[in-house]
Every structure is written in C-alpha cells, then in structure tokens.
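Run log // design_07
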C-alpha cells in the first residue's frame, strides 16, 4: 500500500493507492509551520477513520512545491510510518525528456502530472492544465518530451489579490455566474474570474496546438482543485482530478529498488 502526498502552497492532497488503484483521497490545509507530529497524527487519523491500517503503508511517494516542508514530511514518514519517503525531484527517473533550460526549475507537481498523463496516454501529444494556487499548462509531445509550460495566478489567488489590494472590491464565492455581464460588484468579479480564465484557457490551448503541434492530434487534460468549475465548458478532452497521485505512484514505481 502506497501513500502519495502532493505538498502544495494551499493544500496537501494525498491518497492511498494499491496496484495503481486509488483507494482513498484526502486534503489538508498546507502551512509553512506544520510540524512532523501534527502531520503524522493527521495522516494516521485520516487513514484509520477511513478503514485503513497505517501499518500497511509500506511506501510513501512525495512531491512538494514548498521546500521548507520537505524536512517535516521526511521526519513524519520516518517516525510515524517507519519508512524514508521517495521524493520526486532532481536526479530521479521520470520517463520524460525535460526540455527546460534548467530542469530543476520545473515544479515537482507539474512533473508528477506529466508522468501520470504520459503513463495514462502514451505516445500522445498532451496539454495538461492544472488549477491550483497557480494555474499551469504543461506541454508534452508524443515522444515524451516535456516541452515546457505556462504559469499564471490561480483563480482564488487572483480573487484574494483583488480583495487585498483594493478598497472596495470584496472577496466573493468562486462560481460560474449566471450572466456574462455582472449587475453587481460581486457578480462582476465572479464573471471576470470565471470568463477571464475560460478565455485564457481556450486561447492558450488553441495557440499551443497551432504553434507547437501544427495540426497534430492533441489531448487536453484538466486537473487540480478548480478544474471542476470548467468541466462543462468543452475545453478538456478528459478530466483527471487525481492525476498527481497516479503520477506519484508511477514515479515511485520507476525508481524503486529491485
């Protein structure tokens, strides 16, 4: 039984996998001062409350975009699960040809997504759109070349920025508004957040297909916390909300000792 942990800026997204099948998913608010004991107690509790024996966790696979939490996670895994976690990072096998000028700059969560996508759809051109604290495009060729990506503020990050940096614009619920043109300040912000992101996604996807794939078939994958918001907008070929977990499972499998 493998425990997969995606340590993000806003949340820790985790899961239990057996033979590549996801048996459990859970989330916890991420914070920089999280202690190894706090994390360990949470993980053991969430497993027990969902009918899993923590003692059956034999392997742990981790990706993190919060470097200061890696020490916490490492100590937690040793103390509470008696194992050293596999950490997806520089120097490990990924099955990808990373074309970044400095491959170490690519976020581990983005690499996990790409690994999961290539494993699910081998020999296909892929655009992976992840909705989190930051929204990201990852572009992968049918030859498993990780060509690069695009990063812009996530929908909640953008909303918080408006609320914190203006005198009169409030924080709002992030939803698909009923009308394109808002009739209140609240609905106007909701429309800007939703349709601004929708237009960005559509146009960038079109440009990537045209410039990088020149008419070849491309599969567009949606993942991440806010991907569901755009699920019915005909911008994804497939929704894979657990992509990072399957990527972590595959990465561990590629690197485990025989």
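design_07 sequence
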């Amino acid at each position: 039984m493998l425990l997969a942990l995606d340590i993000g800026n806003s949340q820790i997204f985790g899961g239990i996998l057996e033979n590549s099948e996801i048996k459990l998913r859970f989330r916890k608010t991420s914070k920089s001062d999280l202690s190894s004991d706090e994390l360990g107690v949470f993980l053991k509790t969430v497993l027990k409350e969902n009918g899993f024996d923590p003692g059956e966790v034999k392997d742990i696979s981790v990706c993190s975009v919060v470097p200061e939490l890696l020490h916490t996670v490492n100590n937690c895994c040793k103390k509470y699960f008696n194992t050293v976690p596999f950490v997806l990072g520089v120097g490990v096998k990924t099955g990808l040809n990373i074309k970044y000028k400095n491959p170490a700059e690519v976020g581990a969560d983005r690499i996990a997504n790409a690994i999961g996508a290539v494993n699910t759809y081998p020999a296909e051109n892929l655009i992976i759109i992840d909705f989190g604290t930051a929204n990201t495009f990852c572009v992968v060729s049918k030859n498993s070349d990780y060509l690069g990506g695009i990063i812009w503020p996530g929908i909640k990050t953008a909303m918080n920025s408006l609320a914190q940096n203006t005198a009169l614009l409030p924080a709002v619920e992030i939803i698909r508004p009923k009308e394109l043109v808002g009739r209140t300040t609240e609905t106007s912000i909701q429309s800007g957040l939703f349709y601004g992101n929708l237009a960005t996604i559509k146009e960038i996807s079109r440009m990537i297909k045209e410039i990088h794939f020149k008419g070849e078939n491309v599969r567009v994958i949606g993942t991440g916390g806010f991907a569901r918001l755009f699920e019915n907008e005909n911008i994804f070929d497939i929704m894979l909300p657990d992509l990072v977990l399957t990527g972590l499972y595959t990465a561990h499998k590629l690197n485990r000792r025989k």
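The longest strand covers residues 21-29.
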